[in-house]
Amino acid sequence: MAAAWRIERSTAASRAALFAVALAFAALLALPARGDSGDLRLAVEICYSLALAQAWNLLAGYTGLVSVGQQAYVGLGGYAFFALTVLAGMPPLPSLALAGLVAAALALPTAFVVFRLHGAYFAIGTWVVAEVFRLLLAQMRPLGGGTGMSLPVAVVRDLAQSRGARDLITYYLGLGLGLGTVLLVFFWLRSRQGLALTAIRDSETAAASVGIDNRRTKFAVYAIAAGIAGLTGALAFLEKLRISPDAAFSVGDWTANVIFIVVIGGIGSIEGPILGTIVFFALRALLADYGAWYLITLGALAVAVMLLAPQGLWGVVARPLGLQFFPVQRRLRPLNSPQTAPEAASPGRGD
Amino acid sequence: MRTKPMPVSRRHVIGAGGAVAAAAALGLPAIAQPRPFKLGYVSPQTGPLAPFGEADSFVLANVRETFRNGVKIGGNTVPVEIVVKDSQSNPNRAAEVAADLINRDKVDLMLVASTPETTNPVSDQCEVNETPCVSSVAPWQPWFFARGGKPETGFKYTYHFFWGLEDVIAVYTDMWAQLATDKVVGGLFPNDGDGNAWGDKKLGFPPVLDKQGYKLIDPGRFQDLTDNFSAQIGAFKQGKAEIVTGVVIPPDWTTFWTQAIQQGFKPKIASVGKALLFPSAIEALGANGENLSTEVWWTPAHPFKSSLTGQSAGQLADAYTAATRKQWTQPIGFAHALFEVAADVMKRSHGPGQRDATLAAVQSTRLGTIVGPIAWGGAGPFKNVSKTPLVGGQWRRGGAFKYDLVITSNATAPAIPAGGKMAAIV
Question: Which pTM value belongs to this model?
């Protein structure tokens, strides 16, 4: 009987879809040739929002770490970038990379504390940690305290002399961050550690019983997500030119919006956050000028999706079609009739 | 709130097409519509700072009416387009919308108002992206020094008009000198842009109060949106402070003042910046708002006229009340003055798309506005900063509205008439 089955990873549809993704990426690479600097800035914002969404999805969707304190690492990354460039006088590009490392490094001791909490307590704990970092930074006079500080024009010029060249550099940095995060998550989930992640998501006890080191895996995911948030913070505040504790550790901008993206897109898949990012920025472009109504619409949409389509919009689109752009699961199919519907397989939420 | 292009219906297009065809048939020269001179305007219209942007829609409607037929620039009539963005009281959002206005809308001149949390991110974007910018409604020190401004070099693209800490200190001490007190002052300085500047040991209140013989009790910086002021109240009570001052956000003042009364602390004078600017904040205190004092940057009694509409300060405030049935607020004058500067700059510019000429026009501004004369190009920070007059006032009940702001100190600007003398809080 066993010989009549085979393990399948990619399907014809997913291979075609991957090709489409590659085409879209090529189009993005060529965007600076056509878009003006406004388009490029928006693209950078979309890219780092996607990176944050993928990182949060990895935390909450795969490891079950529902953090509402990712703004801690965005803020730390942003402040590390300002400290390195303005106070230490380092060039912007190495500072950017180092800011990500600083955030990841600070995540490790933090994890020791917050990992003692579970479920809702963990969520609140991460938020408290972010507030603690915000209050600490508000006391640091050399970084402007509660007033905040501006990035001197000289530092920005250090990146590139002309505005056009600066736009180009930040655009490719943003694209690299967004795409890099997607690929990182994709290859991670296809690896042995990816299997461990999905096992932990489904049952921590069962995962431990088959020999997975839950604690080490969670530490790794938490630190990587913090590193991505740190890089995002550095890039975002290089674009915003000014940092203050309230802006850097804003729970709305860096966590609530990101949770919205992942939830409406579809948690526990790579495609979900991508779709969610597109939907979020489309809504913002259409509605942001309507003040409070914009936020009410976002909230209503999130509630509707959670009630009517808990798998998110991507689940609604992809489930019936068996569609996958980024195949990370293994399906079991009978060898003689490849057309059999996926119920023969073990679909789960994407394993 | 953003300016939308006039909706163009199919009929309009066909009609216009017909007119063009007719004109062509008659051999008339087709006149190309020139590119409009674009003004960007950023202010907090929603969120905790929304009272600062409350008058914006009135001011904008008024200004759009005067710009309806365009402005004359070097003999040509150029249409004016105003693109309005809401900062949502969020510095991140302020930076984003400013970048959008610069890169996407390609504004020729940026205008921005209200609190360092709005003016600073927008000014920073303009300085780096080389767009002329005029800002207001933030004391000049938190705008200049908190952005890393160096008096020797200053900024190239960003210009500001408002008063400074030296003015508010002079006004407050003049108000306090009118009453007999023990000269002990309790200071409420939060850890934000304004609070850090006011409480600064070198540039803020402490050195001046020291010199004038006041004893300052400063319990230290606190975070905005604090819900317990017992520590501060305890310190003020223990030091027997008869004067309270500071610069706090409106909800924090309501919390502090309510708790102070509960705990039996009632100073003779409370002169507070930012929190007591708006009638709504005073009304929220019920009967406990009587005789609280604040700095006054603009009132209907200011003896200035608009260079744009010819209205006096009183006429502008009356027009606001007639249009909105609301009591006048101080930002009306300053929002209007920003557009006065814009109109004057446009007239002296070389038209849209001429950045260097627009910048030169900003730099050489010499204009009498509804908030007083504005000119840049002085020494040090005053290359980028133009100061407007400041007086002080007390909120009193019994006028046309629940509370009225009465000017009680004009020693710093005698041209602005005083309406009464300081009275102690009872």
Answer: 0.83
